[in-house]
């Protein structure tokens, strides 16, 4: 179906590692952000108070379905159009369990769905896609400061994933193109090698729109945003100001990145053709090691090399623990073809095992980016490997 994509063994690995890198930076490396995982099925009321129905219904292409009750009656239900609204819906739960003070954030990675009329033939404009979103709650008077902070943080993060900052374009979205919930948005676009661009992340100042929209007793919150009256919610999305009894409906700064689009940007950035002195060239995926779909290949040229085959399994498991990623064993096969394949899929290390050398615990290590091959003790390679993936 158009606008819906599957990922094979290599693409799935890159997506997993991209998600892990985001979660590490946004949740584990910070003391003020808490992760959640919310449902895909969404109450129409949640979309209504988020502003995704009514005048915006067609624009956001909400997928509708039905759910049964105990009497077999059908009620309307939606697939979520963004992960953000479930983060807001869980605001009270997070506050109750973590007792945060401002600023703090709620992070989530997950699928979202939009019934787009126009889709692309590669993963940019899709009907089913994956988002990495943070809702970072701040006092009203600090929104500009935190908006600029998160713009810098996110540019730095994309650079760490191997994206050249010269290929990222920051667009300060003009007022009449802003989303209904945003007072200011920075869009980060990636410039492809052919000059075309696509958005990989938006960083929006959502103000107190969402905390107000999903709260009951809105009159207690002194909202600055215009929101629909909410007579259904029993929540009061507010924080008590330290030292007082004053309730604050915090503003949300939202860095929202696309996993699929991010993966495409990483691939565009990583594919290179390297010319050799003999006039030949090789295609290399110079993807960052932490994103590589295969972390190392153990190649045993001689399929009858008993010691090498036995040792490969031991080496594989040790490397796999160090890298928390996929290590493959190739038995037999032409060395040039194995090397060519692993250059193209981005494997950082090709380790050749030969019985005559393993007797002395020596392996042959080839680096993807340099093409340099060297003999070294296996323990020395473990240290080198760990230094890259630790």
Automatic annotation (TrEMBL):
Aminoacyl-transfer RNA synthetases class-II family profile domain location: 1-289
GO cellular component, one term: cytoplasm
Pfam families, sorted: HGTP_anticodon, tRNA-synt_2b
Entry keyword ATP-binding: yes
InterPro entries to which the protein is assigned, alphabetical: aa-tRNA-synt_IIb, aa-tRNA-synth_II, aa-tRNA-synth_II/BPL/LPL, Anticodon-bd, Anticodon-bd_dom_sf, Gly-tRNA_synthase/POLG2
GO molecular function list: ATP binding; glycine-tRNA ligase activity
Keywords, alphabetical: Aminoacyl-tRNA synthetase, ATP-binding, Cytoplasm, Ligase, Nucleotide-binding, Protein biosynthesis
Superkingdom, taxonomy of origin: Bacteria
Gene3D superfamilies: Anticodon-binding domain, Bira Bifunctional Protein, Domain 2
One GO-annotated biological process of the protein: glycyl-tRNA aminoacylation
PROSITE patterns reported for this sequence: AA_TRNA_LIGASE_II (PS50862)
Protein name per its UniProtKB record: Aminoacyl-transfer RNA synthetases class-II family profile domain-containing protein
């Amino acid at each position: 179906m158009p606008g819906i994509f599957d990922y094979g063994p290599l693409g799935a690995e890159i997506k997993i590692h991209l998600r892990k890198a985001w979660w590490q930076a946004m949740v584990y490396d910070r003391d003020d952000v808490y992760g959640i995982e919310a449902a895909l099925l969404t109450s129409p009321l949640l979309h209504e108070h988020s502003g995704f129905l009514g005048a915006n219904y067609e624009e956001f292409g909400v997928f509708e379905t039905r759910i049964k009750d105990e009497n077999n009656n059908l009620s309307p239900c939606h697939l979520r159009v963004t992960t953000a609204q479930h983060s807001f819906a869980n605001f009270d739960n997070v506050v109750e369990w973590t007792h945060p003070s401002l600023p703090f954030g709620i992070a989530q990675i997950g699928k979202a769905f939009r019934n787009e009329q126009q889709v692309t033939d590669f993963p940019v404009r899709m009907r089913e896609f994956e988002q990495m979103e943070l809702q970072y709650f701040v006092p009203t008077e600090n929104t500009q400061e935190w908006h600029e902070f998160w713009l810098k943080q996110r540019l730095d993060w994309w650079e760490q994933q191997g994206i050249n900052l010269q290929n990222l374009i920051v667009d300060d979205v003009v007022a009449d193109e802003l989303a209904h919930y945003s007072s200011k948005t920075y869009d980060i676009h990636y410039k492809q090698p052919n000059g075309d661009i696509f958005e990989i992340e938006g960083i929006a100042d959502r103000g107190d729109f969402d905390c107000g929209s999903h709260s009951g007793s809105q009159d207690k919150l002194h909202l600055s945003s215009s929101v629909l009256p909410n007579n259904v919610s029993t929540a009061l999305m507010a924080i008590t100001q330290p030292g007082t009894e004053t309730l604050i409906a915090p503003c949300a700064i939202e860095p929202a990145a696309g996993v699929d689009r991010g993966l495409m940007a990483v691939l565009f950035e990583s594919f290179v053709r390297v010319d050799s002195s003999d006039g030949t060239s090789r295609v290399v995926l110079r993807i960052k090691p932490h994103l590589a779909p295969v972390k190392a290949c153990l190649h045993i040229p001689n399929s009858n090399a008993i010691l090498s085959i036995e040792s490969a399994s031991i080496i594989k498991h040790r490397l796999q623990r160090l890298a928390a990623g996929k290590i493959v064993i190739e038995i037999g096969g032409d060395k040039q073809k194995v090397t060519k394949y692993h250059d193209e899929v981005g494997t950082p290390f090709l380790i050749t095992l030969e019985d005559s050398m393993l007797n002395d615990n020596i392996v042959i290590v080839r680096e993807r980016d340099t093409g340099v091959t060297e003999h070294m003790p296996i323990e020395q390679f473990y240290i080198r490997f760990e230094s890259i993936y630790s």
